[in-house]
Structures are given as C-alpha cells and as structure tokens.
Amino acid sequence: MANVLRRYHLGPLIGFLLLFIILSIVSPQFLTFGNLRNVALQMSVNTLLAVGMTFVILTSGIDLSVGSTLALSSAIAAGLMVGHTPIWLAVVIALVVGLLAGLLNGIFIAYARLAPFIVTLGTMTLFRGMTEIYTQGTPIFNIPTGFSWLGTAQLAGIPVPVILTVLILVAAWIILHRSIPGRRIYAVGGNEQVAYLAGVRVKKYLLLVYMVSGVLAAVAGLVLTSRLGSAEPTAGTGYELDAITAVVLGGTSLFGGEGTLVGTLIGAAILGVIDNGLNILNVNSFWQDAVRGAIILLAILLDRKKVTR
Amino acid sequence: MSVLEMKGITKSFGSVKVLESVDLRLESGEVLALLGENGAGKSTLMKILTGVYSADAGEIRLDGQPVSIHQIQDSRALGIEIMHQELSLFQNLSIAENFLIGHEAAYRTGPGLIDYRKLHRDVAKALLRVGLQRPTSTPVSALGVGEQQLVEIARAIQSKVRFLIMDEPTAALTEVETARLFDLIRQLRADGVGIIYISHRMEELYQIADKVEILRDGKFIGTRSMAGADERELIRMMVGRDVDERYPRRDPVPGEMLLELKGLTTHRVRNIHLNVRAGEVVGLGGLMGSGRTEVARAIAGVDRIRGGEMRFRGQPRMFRSPGEASAAGVAFVTEDRKREGLILSFSVRENLALPTLDQRKRGGLVHRARERAFANDMVHRLRIKVANAEQAVGSLSGGNQQKVVLGKWLAHNPDLLILDEPTRGVDVGAKQEIYQLINEMKAEGKGILMISSDLPELLGMCDRVYVMYQGTTQGEVKGESLNEEDFMTLATGGEL
Questions:
Q1: Could you tell me if residue B446 is inside a domain?
Q2: Which residues in chain B have Cβ-Cβ distances shorter than 8 Å to A204?
Q3: How many domains, in total, are found in chain A?
C-alpha cells in the first residue's frame, strides 16, 4: 500500500493538502463544517462523471460526450416527470438513456475500431443536438417537488448527492481494484494485444467502460436537475473537460493501464477546493478561469516525476 | 592504427555497483566480442563509452591519450558510433530523411533549407556500401527488419567512423541477411574500423570475432583469442559455473495425438501439414518470413483459418479467439515479450495471474491471498529472480521476463504449448533454465510446438522439426536427418 501511495497519490495529495492549508489560512470561512459540506456537494456531479471517465481513460480511451449525455438523459427525465410519468420510472428511463448513449459510443469504439476521441466528439454534438430537439431549446421547469429530494435533502446532516457519490465511489473502487473485470480493464489499457492473447474479451470490456461512463453521466444529470429544479438544454456543457482534468490530476495516465480511483477522488477534490476557494475569496469571475488553469498546471507539474519515471 | 582503451571503469546506480574496475582494449581493424549474461554490465559499459552515462571512476584513452566523453557528441567527434539492439529509425520517414536527422548542418543551404540533391547522392553512396538496393526515398516502414538493420549500419558508418559498437545486430536477421552483415563487418575490419560486437549467439562469435572479452556481474573476467577458444570455458567464465549440456534433450514418450493440421491455410500461410503428440517437443523452423509465427497464430485462434483441417485431440476444431483456444487447453507463448507477452505497467504477480484470473475468484472478486500464494509459488518454481512478486515486470532482465511469460501460461496447465522464440534475447544461464522447463513439461506429457530462429537450439531441443519455406511446410527433419544440412536444404526450398 505504501508503494501504491508513492506511485500514484503522493503528488496529487501534496497538491491538495497545500491548497487546503493555504485556503484555511487565508480565509476563516474555508475550514468550517458548513463550507466543507458545500465543497463536497459542489464536487459531487464532477466526481460522478470523473469516476466513469476513470474507467474509460484506464483503457486509454476518452469520453467527450458525458456532458451531453448528462443533458439528454436529464432533459428526458424532466420532460417525462412534467408529463406525469412516475418519478421512479423517469429515473430508470434516464439511466437507460445514459446506458444506451454509452453503448453507442462503445459499439463505434470497440467494434468499428474508431478512435474514442473522434467518436465521442461526434456523439457529444449528436446528444447535445438531440437534447435541443427534445427541449426545443427551452429549459424544462415545474418538475414535481418529490424529485428534489435527490439533490437537496440531507441524511444526518450529509447532503444526499454526497452520500450517493460516496456509495458509487466505493462500488466503483471494488470493481476496479478488487474484481476480476476490473483487473481485465487495467489489462486492456496496459496492453490490448497482450490482454487479447491472454484470453481477455477486449471488445466486451471496451463496451463496458463506455456504458459505465454513460450511466454515471445520467446519474450526474439527475443529481444536477434535482438540485436546480429544472433541466437546461445547455446543462453540462464543458463538464467532460472537468472530469478529464480530475482524472489526470489524480495521476491516471492518458495512455491507459495506470491510475486509481483514489487518485481521481483527490483530483476532483482539488478542483472542488479551487472553485470554492476562488468564490469565498471573492476572486473576480473573469480571473477565476485563469487562476484555475494556472493551479491545474502547477498541480500537474508537482506530479511530473511520475511521468518521467 | 589506433587503440581505444577503457581502464578501471566503475559505475554505480544508487547503491548498486553495476561495473567494478572494468578494462577494455580495442584496436582498429579487429572485432572484439563482448560476452556476458544479461545484467553483466555490457550495455552500461557501452553507454559509458558513447557518453550516455559518465563513469564514477576510471578513464578512457585513445592512442594512449586520455579523452573525456560526457555526451554522445563527444564520442561521435572521436569517431565512435553505436548501433542499438532496438532499431532506432523513424518509420514514417524515408531512408534519406533518416540520414538527415542529426546531420542537418551538413546539408544546409540557407535558413531552414536543405540540399536534398546532395543528401540523396550521399545516401545512395552509403546504401551501395552496405549492399542495400533500394531507392533512397523509400519509406523505412516499407523495409524488412533486415533491410532496416542495413540502413542503421549505413547510417553509422557514413561518418568517419573509427570504432563501431554493434549490440545484438543479428537478433532479427535471416540467415542470408546475417551472412551479408558478416561480409560487411569483414570489409569494415579490413578498412581499419575497430568493432565491438555483442551477441548471445556463440556460433556467430566464432565466425566473426577476433577476440572475446567476458564480463560477469559487472566485473572483468578475462579475454581470450577467439580462434581456439573453448566454448565450454567461455560459458563457464560467463555463467560462473559449469553448464553440463548445451541442449539437454530428453527422449520423448509420445502419447495421445494432440494436434493435427491437414492442409491448413490462412491468408498468410497455405497447405500446412503437421502433428504434435503429447510428450514430445516438435520444432517449427524455417527462414525468417517463411510463416512460422503465422502457423502458430492460426492454431491459437489469432488468425482466421480459411481452408484445410485442424484437429485437436482427434476432434475437428478451429478456435475463433485466443480465449477459446486457451479454454480448450492451448497456450500460445508469443515471440515479442514487450508487445505481446507482458503488460509492463503490471507487477510480476498481475502478469502471471492474467490468463487464469477465473481460477482464483471469490464471487466476482480476485481472491487476493490465493493470487499472492500462486504468484510466489510460480516465482519459486520458475526461479524468477525478483525481490518479490510485486515488483514491476519491466524492471526484470530479459530472461526473467521470459520466465514470467512462460509462467503465466504454465499456470493454465495447457495440453498443448506453442513456444514462439522462447529464448530470444535471453542469456545462457536463463536459456538453460528454460530448456529444463521445456523438458519438465514434456515429461508431464504436454505437447510442445517450438519455433526458433536459433538453429542449433531447434535441432538440439526438438525431437523432430517441421521446416517451412515460403508459407508452407516443405518437409520434416527427424532421426538421421535432424541436422543442419538437411534442415537448410528444406528451408531453402529443396527436397530431401
């Protein structure tokens, strides 16, 4: 375990702790239970996307369509709920939409052997377009109040989205780091040819990771819609890049086969803390992106030793 | 006539001493073989000579004068060139463009402009010298491995080379290409170039080297004149102990018929006839490019079978994927460790466990304790030299990596084992251990189909050998005809 920590997490962890300590010193509001709870809530959507993205990137793939999948599945769920479909059924349909979106990506990538970047660049636009057609370009309001539980309720003082994210993280961790399919996903990413010759059904696992990513995008969409109380046709725009950033900050290699979910969580936490810090420090919103980008570059630089290893 | 000397070279990486007071002496116009097991320090010594590493102690002298070599440009300026074991050509560029890289200054006609006419003229001259008949604008990716090797040599000797280091230059060459390379080396020697030649193939050293220097565990063991050097003595110096037999073949006890190919045809090979019984080691030989690996790929379900018949255990079978083949009891130990055999980001344990994950599961989860026990057991059984099974497989020597590849398939307990070049790039000590393993499997009643470019090894380890020529099985050598002459007759298209 010490070895794993050294290999994958020390760089990102130091970056996170540095940020955490600096913010605790410069802002008295930062290190309070209420604010930290807020950070956890704010980062839950990105963390959900980043978990799915970790599966994909471990196979040396990429999924640019998650932001659009998020929008499409939540718009459909919202539309159905407004049209008096039972909430549970609308939720299930949203998850199926996410699954099918991932399936479509997976078929193109695993069976038609197209480059993941190109395929998901295409489906990113396709799913966004479908969302705009479905919503006719206008936000969907008047979602039944029962649905707001998912995004706004708390259990024992902890927001439901945070609890949900933790549960999904634990499940994903078990799959990736303890299960046989997880080992095979790493094998596919480490060297597809070796995995294939060792009897791993490479196509099946490629399909699987994009489906995981699609479903988690739908989950993230439901959380977001529930919190906002409306489904926007532009929801999730650019979220795919935040998810990729979290995964990469967590030390996962874009070439596949190397990386961990704990790293991804740390990566998402770094982004969450940056965003929160910039807000509570009242940094001019024009400056926020520039500062955010600079901090990300700095964090990656901290982790550079691993890359050149 | 000049003399290149290295004296008292010492080098440590961290606390590990990889070279300890090593000497080397090379005169122009001689071929010095550098012999030693993987990890003996040959590469490190050559990297110090070419300026990739700096020595901690010791000095390099040219004609008695100390010279300082701290970067590659320093050694180049002295006329020392190296040809690496792995090809270092840009596949996407033409032959001429590959020559240009690093020598742009010589062809500059203006800011950012290149005199291509002069370049192509010079390159054509260099290609002529190595006997490669290809237009200088040919993309390197269109060349065979042997031709690429010639391009490397042409590139290395185009400048005023005085000393040339060749690291396993024949590893990927056919017999014909090797012969051509040796002619070239003799010509260079006659021109007064001093050559350091690194190879694990003992037979070659007798053909080409004048002297041999042996290293073991980073120490200088001795030098011998190659003419009249006793092979057993050289191996003993290299390994540090006696090696009883080069090829410890055991008598076969042929059992049940495992594999029969009757006229098997794929898009790469045609009309293949062969059979393998339990308890025998059957060879599959032939010149490079004759289709040996392609036969193995067809059997193991990697390439699709288009015609003919394949029977496994008496039943007609054709495997549609490697997974299907391995489920039926066929293991395919591939030739290229780094590309097809190992996942370099995985530990030794994870690599060993990969094909047999399903044998150690609890629910859908990996049974971690059993996997650790399994890996330790395999490391012990195959005598893989590692600190522990958690070590990254990429940090192992070639021989130990090869044992990991073998181990992951042995764990599968297959009936038929296809070994494609099981000892390529493996040193003498590890070769012996791999031969022992092959014999153990044979004694256990497994059928083994072995592919090797190392002819003495193939004839020495196999009970009988099928010989391929231009994509088909030309014939079989066994019993009386299990010798190099008959093999080469078949391999070059003749009949027995």
A1: yes
A2: none
A3: 1
Assess if residue B123 is contained within a domain.
yes
Bridge partners for B449 per DSSP = B282, B418
Give the range of the structural domain holding residue A237, as residue numbers without chain letter.
Answer: 32-304
Alpha carbon B69 to its chain centroid, in Å, reads 30
Interface residue A178 vs chain B (CB under 8 A): yes
Given a cut of 80, whether residue B244 has pLDDT beyond it is no
Does A258 touch chain B if contact means CB atoms closer than 8 Å?
yes
**Coil, helix or strand at residue B382:** coil
Residue A13: inside a domain: no
Nearest alpha carbon to residue A200 among A213, A211, A189:
A189
CB contact at 8 A, A70 and A215:
no
Instruction: State the nearest Cα–Cα gap between A228 and chain B, in angstroms.
Output: 38
Across the interface, whether the CB atoms of A180 and B322 are under 8 A apart is answered: no
**Span A279-302, mean pLDDT?**
85
Indicate the number of domains in chain B: 2
Q: Annotate B320-350 with b (16+ C-beta within 10 A) or e (fewer).
A: ebbbebbebbbbbbbbebeebbbbbbbbbbb
- What pLDDT shows up at residue B204? 87
Whose CA is closest to B197, among B213, B183, B177, B215?
B213
Query: What is the domain extent for residue B420?
Result: 257-491
Q: Is A2 contained in some domain? A: no
> What CATH number should be reported for the domain holding residue A251?
1.10.3470
CA distance to partner chain A, nearest, from residue B356 (Å): 9
Which pLDDT score is estimated for B252?
Answer: 86
Residues of chain A numbered 156-175 and touching chain B (CB < 8 Å) = 174
Structural domain ending residue among the three candidates B194, B210, B239? B239
- The CATH number of residue B64's host domain is 3.40.50.300
Q: How far apart (Å, rounded) are the C-alpha atoms in residues B387 and B373?
A: 15
- Chain-centre distance for alpha carbon A205: 19
Higher pLDDT, A52 or B35: A52
Q: What is the pLDDT of residue A8?
A: 55
- Give A88-101 pLDDT, tens digit per residue: 999 999 999 999 99
Rg (CA), chain B: 24
Looking at residue B55, the DSSP 8-state letter turns out to be -
**Which residues, at least 6 apart from B7, have a Cβ–Cβ distance to it below 8 Å?**
B23, B58, B59, B60, B61
Residue A62's nearest CA partner among A165, A206, A232 is A206
Chain A residues with CB under 8 Å of B358 CB are 180
Q: How many CB pairs under 8 A join A and B?
A: 75
pLDDT tens digits, residue range B262-320?
999 999 999 999 999 999 999 999 887 789 999 999 999 999 999 999 999 999 999 99
**What is the pLDDT confidence band of residue A307, given thresholds at 50, 70 and 90?**
very low
DSSP tag of A231:
B
DSSP three-state, residue B21: strand
Query: Does B424 reside within a domain?
Result: yes
Is A11 within the bounds of a domain? Answer: no
CA distance B299 to B288: 19
Name chain A contacts of B327, Cβ cutoff 8 Å.
199
Q: What is the pLDDT of residue B217?
A: 85
- What is the Cα–Cα distance from B67 to B91, expressed in whole angstroms? 35
Instruction: Classify residue B248: in a domain, yes or no.
Output: no
**pLDDT given for residue B86 in this prediction:** 66
What b/e sequence results for A16-49 when a residue is b if at least 16 CB atoms lie within 10 Å of its CB, and e otherwise? beebbeebeeebeebeeeebeebbbbbbbbbbbb
> Is A163 inside any structural domain?
yes
Q: What is the pLDDT of residues B397-446, one digit of tens each?
A: 888 899 999 999 998 899 999 999 998 878 788 888 899 999 999 999 99
Nearest-CB residue to B340 (from A174, A190, A194): A194
- Closest partner residue to A179 among B300, B350, B365, by Cβ? B365
Which among A200, A203, A208 has a CA at the least distance from the CA of A184? A200
Q: Does the beta carbon of A192 lie under 8 angstroms from any beta carbon of chain B?
A: no
